[in-house]
Amino acid sequence: MSNLSEISVAILAGGRGTRLASTDPGKQKVIARVREHPFLEYILNQLNETGFKNVVICTGHLGDQVRDEFGENYKSLPLFYSQEPSPLGTAGAIRFALSLLESENILVTNGDSFLDIDLKKFLEFHIQKRANGTIALTEISDTSRYGSVEFDKNNRIVSFKEKSKNRGVRFINGGIYLFKRSLLLKIPKNKTVSFEKVIFPTWTGKSLYGFKTKGDFIDIGTSESYDKAQEFFSKYSI
Fold this sequence. Notes:
Blueprint: E1 8-13, E2 33-34, E3 37-38, H1 39-50, E4 54-59, H2 63-70, E5 73-74, E6 77-83, H3 89-97, E7 105-110, E8 113-115, H4 119-128, E9 133-140, E10 148-151, E11 157-161, E12 170-180, H5 181-184, H6 195-203, E13 208-213, E14 217-219, H7 223-232
Parallel strand pairs: 1-4, 1-7, 4-6, 9-13
Antiparallel strand pairs: 2-3, 5-6, 7-12, 8-14, 9-12, 10-11
């Protein structure tokens, strides 16, 4: 069983946040204030409390703001940075940072969403399944904004459904992943590539699994969800 302290973590923090721009203009969205803390701090605190020791923040748009905010450490967590030279997309940014991510299994998390998840059980599931990749799935009552993920009885992911007006309880991509390094090496270098739009659909049927959780989920992709985050984090102390 891999030790959490040996797992490299990559946080995607390079998005432009165009839908949130009016809320905090000129600010990288992952450091937008939520209850007086940068949003990204809630993720770093979760990682620190769980026992991770190697975190790389993948920056892009306004990346200097993220580095200035957090510096080289968060509490006992050493922080490293991978500044993409031009927008590379979610998968491209991880491929670009791969030289800083040394473990066999690599945890990847979105920097603009938070999922209350038992990361130890997530890793145990990933290893037990001998998965090439595992996506944390969370159950929500309205998937019209996110789309949904379909999986078989063994939790192997079989398809990704586009967002639609059909509301209902479904599992969605919770924005936290575990990947084998060998799988990430197959992403083209120095190309703009998206996990969600390009990579994941091609990985279905290739040992890609879903880890189901009912943990609370929030993102700050829109001004509406950003406003909801203020109440969401009232029960999380830092």
